[in-house]
Amino acid sequence: xxxxxxxxxxxxxxxxxxxxxxxxxxxxxxxxxxxxxxxxxxxxxxxxxxxxxxxxxxxxxxxxxxxxxxxxxxxxxxxxxxxxxxxxxxxxxxxxxxxxxxxxxxxxxxxxxxxxxxxxxxxxxxxxxxxxxxxxxxxxxxxxxxxxxxxxxxxxxxxxxxxxxxxxxxxxxxxxxxxxxxxxxxxxxxxxxxxxxxxxxxxxxxxxxxxxxxxxxxxxxxxxxxxxxxxxxxxxxxxxxxxxxxxxxxxxxxxxxxxxxxxxxxxxxxxxxxxxxxxxxxxxxxxxxxxxxxxxxxxxxxxxxxxxxxxx
Length: 312
Ligand SMILES: Cc1cc2nc3c(=O)[nH]c(=O)nc-3n(C[C@H](O)[C@H](O)[C@H](O)COP(=O)(O)OP(=O)(O)OC[C@H]3O[C@@H](n4cnc5c(N)ncnc54)[C@H](O)[C@@H]3O)c2cc1C
Fold this sequence. Notes:
alpha+beta, FAD/NAD(P)-binding domain, Helicase, Ruva Protein, domain 3, 2 domains, six-stranded antiparallel beta barrel, 8 helices, 13 strands, 29% helix
């Protein structure tokens, strides 16, 4: 669901208004430290001195996109209070690719392509269908971001991305299509025969991969060459070498260990009165609202649980 305004700020404003209407008092400041006291907690704030409280909910997010304010402070607070923090890693993050192809295709976005990612043994790691984008460093876009959640072993594993530019056409149908395009361009150079089939930027890359001389007349292209062209369209291959930095990741995987948090209340199993909510916890999911849902659901549960104990 999206707000009518299509703006995230509307959601924030609605939540703030609800909290205010319910009698909540808000202090906007940066928490510098959280310490346990005999009766509760003591927070040190950057501009407002100390704040003593009965309960604390740590909901400081992950460490990705630090410009949104989440710089990993929650991990430090959790560690200082005795919690285990699973090492934060980038997820839903653009990927780096080797070679000159990404630079040549930079800015090109592709719709309706199929991707297949395999490891060094040719074993499937991930496959998907949808949109992707080439950048100067590699690849990005929805299917790539989702794929990144499955590529956690860069350095130990060798991942290869294979892009099928025409997944709706099987090899036979694509061959017939190529023949039709060739017949319409018999006297042209091969270079000028793919305009109807592929985006302009992609044509020189596919031609280079096919090994066919771009200046060869279309009428002289052999069946074997056509087969090589077909393969380069169905299997544009890139070696993936890593991810962009965690600061560019949409989500942080890792965080406060779920083993140390009660799923019924979000309360710490180690420190009574301490609660966790959202991305600071070691949970992450695909795009599509799942991470926001995690934040809302755990936030709601932590809030209700903490308040119930204080009120009752
Ligand atoms: C570009 C982008 C696109 C995204 N798209 C999607 C999407 O389509 N679907 C989806 O499900 N998820 C998406 N996400 C992820 C989603 O936004 C997060 O998972 C979610 O916002 C996490 O909520 P949170 O409340 O746990 O943390 P955050 O939203 O990160 O909020 C943490 C808050 O804590 C504050 N804070 C941190 N440290 C301190 C401190 N020491 N003192 C005081 N305050 C502090 C921060 O300023 C921040 O306001 C996207 C994220 C990004 C960056």
